[in-house]
Automatic annotation (TrEMBL):
It comes from the Bacteria. The keyword NAD does not apply. One of its GO terms (biological process) is cell division. This is Cell division inhibitor. InterPro entries: DCC1-like (IPR007263), DCC1_Trx (IPR044691). Keywords: Cell cycle, Cell division. Coiled coil: none annotated.
């Protein structure tokens, strides 16, 4: 069976995102591809808009399915030996609160024009 690679789209201008990506790159098993949103072709019809990609974390699975937000983060970390630590965030009892925390942070970041970004957006 051929390898199955997921692709994680991230904000390469965000110091916090860059730090997490460096950690994921070190820990992952080689089956996660990293794509900086700012290096993507703006006219690629297969991708969400740049604005959508910056609003929420996006991961495209090996089968072409999009996973967005908190589930994308959990799936990205599932490519590391520590992924099991985040899986409980998707449990029905924890998910509503975890999703609200993630979305509040993401919305605040986006509304403040990527407050954690460096350089021009």
């Amino acid at each position: 069976m051929p390898p199955r690679y997921d692709t994680l789209f991230y904000d390469g201008r965000c110091p916090l995102c860059a730090k997490e990506i460096r950690t994921l790159r070190k820990l992952q098993r080689g089956d996660l591809i990293f794509a900086d949103i700012h290096e993507q072709n703006a006219h690629n019809a297969q991708l969400p808009t740049r604005e959508e990609l910056l609003k929420r974390l996006h991961l495209m699975t090996w089968s072409g399915e999009w996973v967005i937000g908190l589930p994308a983060n959990v799936r990205a970390w599932s490519h590391t030996p520590f992924g099991w630590l985040l899986k409980p965030l998707l449990w029905p009892v924890l998910y509503p609160l975890a999703k609200r925390v993630y979305e509040t942070w993401a919305d605040r970041r986006f509304e403040k024009k990527y407050a954690c970004s460096v350089g021009p957006s």
